[in-house]
Amino acid sequence: MARRATNNPRQIRSKTCGCAACIEAYPPEQHGERKKRRDCLGAWQARYRDPAGKQKSKNYAKKGEAEAFLDRTRTRVRSGEYADPKRGQITVATWWETWWEAQPERRTTTVNRKLSNWRCHIEPKWGSWRLCDLEYMEIQTWLNKEVKGYHARRKVLELLRGMLAGAVKDGRRIPFNPAADVELEPPPQKHADDLRPPTRAQCALIREHTAMYYRPLLVFLEETGMRWGEATGLRWGNVDLEAEHAKVKEVLNEDRGTLFRQAAPKTAHGFRTVPLTPEAVAAVQEMVTRWRPRKAVSAIGDGRDLHPDELVFRGPQGGVLTRHNFRRTWIPAIQAAGLARQVVNSETKRTEWWPRVHDLRHVFATRLKEAGVDEKDVQTVMGHERGSKVTWLYQHSQEDVAAQVRARMAPPTEGVRKLKAV
């Protein structure tokens, strides 16, 4: 091991200093007269080598500061925690280009969401900042005060954390992740009525006010609990009416207004076999009789060739059903049924309608829970990744809890022993 330099840190000679060493290095004849002094004014240069062996230096006004810096830096180099300050001086926008290019392939919808969060939220605020200048408190304040909507804040924070974690790992461009411990405000609380799905009677009322053509689709959604993209992307070749089940193998999704086939459902648990009730079988048979779909299942390819001639549920003209077009049917139906309720989101100020088409999936799950189906089986049929979500989301039983309490608090009948205060 090479011997450590004895003159490290060393004092740098200054043209403005009048000490003997500086006058010798910079003669007055060439650099002007200076007032003579005993102590030198020159900065103290601390020299060190980075993990690659390249020599670097940093200047300090006092010798003690330079020695303290050397002690800290040598310790970080030995422990592998050293971060080159110059590597963190690039802008966040520059780092985004490097980091994003190295990310693994994701679902199209996930890629679009992350790009949107970058362009709409992170880039306008932090794009021109240097990585090394980001601080915890500024990020915390920005997220909770400027980014609207709890779910938007959560996804933006998730993306920003990933970017900065990559900067820490990439040769330690920054010594730590300033977004790692950022805390978000809790999500807004909703009344149980806003979470409860419609009853089966209400679903039947909605169907009565829906065009006849769409009623088999609504029955199928209510009887299977499939997501919209799973039901509208269901191909006749993946349905077995004799065995009374349908296999979820792909979904229809949307990319900036363009429909495409996606080989995988929402999660790995989305690949599943869904049992078909007699009502669901009848709904499928009605649509198959109308359109006579092909039994073969074509290859997905790039996803743009939709092959609507294989689909069970189609639009009135035989094309693919889209959310936007069906919304024109759904909202008038719930309004005519007297069930429509407009709710203004307190954070985003957007107007949302209740009930939604997706709530038919909640109706199905609630039925399973009320029928006593095991939570693990409910999780499997619904295609959920976690069973806890099933318990939390679908415990909106139709039983009137208030009525039960009133029954228990009612005055006892004759012959029944009364409770006495002690």
Question: Any overview of this molecule?
Answer:
The chain has 422 residues and is mainly α. It has 3 domains: 10-82, no CATH class; 92-169; 193-393, hpI Integrase, Chain A (Orthogonal Bundle). The protein has 17 helices and 10 strands. It has helices at residues 20-25, 28-31, 63-79, 92-101, 108-126, 136-146, 150-169, 192-195, 200-208, 215-224, 228-232, 278-291, 323-336, 359-370, 375-382, 387-393, 401-409; strands spanning 10-11, 44-49, 55-60, 239-240, 245-248, 251-255, 258-262, 272-275, 341-344, 351-354. Strands 1-2-3 form a 3-stranded antiparallel beta sheet, covered by helices on one side.
- Give the count of structural domains: 3
Distance between termini? Answer: 86 Å
Shape estimate: elongated
The amount of helix comes to 40-55%
SSE run: EHHEEHHHHHHHHHEEEEEHHEEHHHH
Report the sheet with the most strands, covering strand number, pairing sense and barrel closure.
Answer: 3 strands, antiparallel
In the CATH hierarchy, what is the superfamily of the largest domain? Intergrase catalytic core
Q: Give the overall average pLDDT.
A: 85
| Portion in beta strands | 5-15%
Spans where pLDDT lies below 50 across 5 or more residues: 396-400, 418-422
Q: Give the spatial strand order of the biggest sheet.
A: 1-2-3
| CATH architecture annotation of the largest domain | Orthogonal Bundle
Tell me the radius of gyration. 34 Å
Count of extended strands: 10
Q: CATH topology of the largest domain, what is it called?
A: hpI Integrase, Chain A
Q: Give me the number of helical elements.
A: 17
Which CATH first-tier class of the largest domain would you pick? Mainly Alpha
The structure class reads: mainly alpha
